[in-house]
Design goal:
Helix content is 49%, strand content 15%. By secondary structure, it is α+β, with helices and mostly antiparallel strands. The chain folds into 3 domains: 9-122, Acyl-CoA dehydrogenase/oxidase, N-terminal domain (Butyryl-Coa Dehydrogenase, subunit A, domain 1); 125-232, Butyryl-CoA Dehydrogenase, subunit A, domain 2 (Beta Barrel); 240-387, Butyryl-CoA Dehydrogenase, subunit A, domain 3 (Up-down Bundle), CATH 1.20.140.10. Helix 3 packs parallel to helix 7 (241-269), helix 7 (241-269) packs parallel to helix 9 (321-348) and helix 9 packs antiparallel against helix 11 (376-387). The structure holds flavin-adenine dinucleotide. Flavin-adenine dinucleotide is lined by residues 91, 125-128, 133-134, 158-160, 203, 206, 211, 368, 371-372, 374-375, 377-378. Flavin-adenine dinucleotide binds at residues 91, 125-128, 133-134, 158-160, 203, 206, 211, 368, 371-372, 374-375, 377-378.
Length: 396
C-alpha cells in the first residue's frame, strides 16, 4: 500500500503543462469571461493540443490511455484557475464522451471519439428535466419509434455546455409504462437535427460554463442513434456516475487549493493594526482549517480514483464499494469546498466581496458541488444504502 502523494513523472508533467497553460492562457481572460459569462471558444482545441481531452481513451481514438487519477489531476489543475471551466471540460469529456465510449459500438466510437480528443467537438449530457431532478427516473422526455426513426419530444434542463455543444447524449422514455425499465440512451449531432432549441440559463456562479434548457420538438433521430440497447438506458446512465463523481471532485479540489494559496498570500500582505493579518490567531485558524480540509478532500478523491483505476470493471453502481467511495468523495469535497470558499472570502474581507478577485469566483463556483452530479442529500442516501448492505465491511 503506497500512502503518499508522490505523483509519477508522467503525472507531474501533465500537472505542470496544464497548470502553465491555465495560468498563462486562461487566467488573464477570466475576469472578463466571468463578467460576460462566456466560455473561451477555443477552450477545447487548446486542451486537445495539451492532450487533456481524451485522457482515458485508447490511442486509436486519439486519447492518451491513462487513468482516472490523471483525469482527476487534470480537472483539479484546471480548477486552480477556473472551477467552472473545469466542470465544462468534465461535462464534455467525462459525462458525455467517456460514457458514450463505455456504451457505444466500435463503429460509433471511431466516428465520435477522435473529434472529442482534438476538441473539434464539445459534448453535453442530458439527464435532468424541469420536473425530474434527483428523481431522474421520473423523466418525461419520450422517444417514439416510427419506422426506422425515433421521434423525440420533451426537454432537459441545466445542461452544461448545452448552448455551445456539437454533440449530445441524453435519456428518454421508450416504454413509459415500464418506468425505469423503459428508458433508453441516445446521441445526436446538433447540426444534423431539426426541432432542437437551446436557451441559455443565467447563473450567479459557474459563470463561463454555459448552461441550457434544451427542448425537443418532434426531433427525428435515426434508430442507430440509440446506445446501449433498447430500454437499457438506466444501465448506461449508472455506468458513468462513479467516474463522474470521482473526477468532478477535482473541480472543487482545485478551487480549495487556490482559496488556500490566495488567502495565505493575501494574509501575509494585508496589514491592519500595524501588522500583517496573518499574525492574528483568528486568521491563522481559518488558514489551518482550509489546509486541513483541502488535504482531507484530496485523500478522499485521489484514493477513490486510485481504487477505481485498479478495477477491471469501473462501472460501480449499486452493491459496489466504488459506488459508496465515489459518492463519499464528492460529498466531502463539495461540502468542504463551500466551507473553504467562505473562509477565503472572510480572509479577504471587503475585497473578497468584489467580483474582480479570483477568490470570489472560486467561492461562487464551489456551491455547485453540493448540487450538481447528484446533490449532497442524494449522495448521503447512496452511502447509507451501501452501509446497510449485509456484506458491508468498514475500512474502505
Ligand atoms: C450549474 C449546473 C450544471 C448542471 N449540469 C447538468 C448536466 O450537464 N446534465 C444534467 O443532466 N444535469 C445537470 N445539472 C442538474 C443537476 O444534476 C440537478 O440540479 C441535481 O441533480 C438536482 O436536481 P434538481 O435541481 O431538480 O433538485 P431537486 O431534485 O428538485 O431537489 C431539491 C432539493 O430537494 C432535495 N431532495 C430531493 N429528493 C430528496 C430525497 N429523496 N431525500 C432528501 N432530499 C431530497 C435535494 O437534495 C435538493 O436539496 C446541473 C445543475 C446545475 C445547477
Amino acid at each position: 500500500m503506497a500512502l503518499d502523494f508522490n505523483f509519477t513523472d508522467e503525472q507531474k508533467m501533465l500537472e505542470d503543462s496544464v497548470y502553465k497553460w491555465a495560468v498563462s492562457w486562461l487566467e488573464p481572460q477570466m475576469e472578463h469571461l466571468y463578467e460576460v459569462d462566456e466560455m473561451p471558444p477555443t477552450l477545447f482545441k487548446e486542451l486537445g493540443n495539451l492532450g487533456v481531452n481524451g485522457i482515458v481513451f485508447d490511442e486509436k481514438y486519439g486519447g492518451t490511455a491513462l487513468g482516472y487519477i490523471e483525469t482527476l489531476l487534470a480537472y483539479e489543475t484546471i480548477a486552480r484557475v477556473s472551477n467552472a471551466l473545469s466542470m465544462t471540460v468534465g461535462a464534455s469529456q467525462t459525462l458525455c464522451f467517456d460514457n458514450f465510449r463505455r456504451n457505444a459500438s466500435e463503429k460509433q466510437r471511431m466516428y465520435v471519439l477522435p473529434k472529442s480528443c482534438t476538441g473539434e467537438w464539445v459534448g453535453c449530457l442530458g439527464i435532468t428535466e424541469p420536473n425530474a431532478g434527483s428523481d431522474a427516473m421520473s423523466m418525461a422526455t419520450k422517444a417514439e419509434k416510427k419506422g426506422d426513426k425515433y421521434i423525440i419530444n420533451g426537454s432537459k434542463i441545466f445542461i452544461t455546455n448545452g448552448p455551445v455543444a456539437d454533440f449530445m447524449t441524453f435519456y428518454a422514455k421508450t416504454d413509459p409504462a415500464a418506468g425505469p425499465k423503459g428508458i433508453s440512451a441516445f446521441f445526436f449531432e446538433f447540426d444534423k437535427v431539426k426541432g432542437v432549441t437551446r436557451e441559455k440559463i443565467k447563473k450567479w456562479g459557474m459563470r463561463t460554463s454555459p448552461t441550457a434548457l434544451i427542448t425537443f420538438e418532434d426531433v427525428e433521430l435515426p434508430a442507430e442513434n440509440l446506445i446501449g440497447g433498447l430500454n437499457k438506458g438506466v444501465a448506461v446512465l449508472t455506468s458513468g456516475l462513479c467516474t463522474e463523481r470521482i473526477t468532478l471532485s477535482g473541480c472543487t479540489l482545485g478551487s480549495q487549493r487556490s482559496c488556500l494559496e490566495l488567502s495565505l498570500k493575501y494574509a501575509k500582505e494585508r496589514v491592519q493594526f500595524g501588522k500583517p493579518i496573518i499574525s492574528y490567531q483568528a486568521i491563522q485558524e481559518k488558514l489551518a482549517n482550509m489546509y486541513t480540509g483541502y488535504l482531507a478532500s484530496k485523500w478522499m478523491a485521489y484514493s477513490a480514483a486510485a481504487y477505481c483505476d485498479t478495477l477491471e470493471n469501473k462501472v460501480g453502481g449499486k452493491g459496489t464499494d466504488l459506488d459508496r467511495m465515489a459518492a463519499a468523495a464528492l460529498l466531502f469535497c463539495g461540502e468542504m469546498g463551500t466551507k473553504i470558499g467562505l473562509d477565503a472570502i472572510q480572509v479577504f474581507g471587503g475585497y473578497g466581496y468584489c467580483t474582480e478577485y479570483p477568490v470570489t469566483r472560486h467561492f461562487l463556483d464551489q456551491k455547485l458541488w453540493e448540487i450538481g452530479a447528484g446533490t449532497s442529500e442524494i449522495r448521503r442516501m447512496i452511502i447509507a444504502r451501501e452501509l446497510m448492505r449485509d456484506d458491508f465491511k468498514s475500512g474502505k
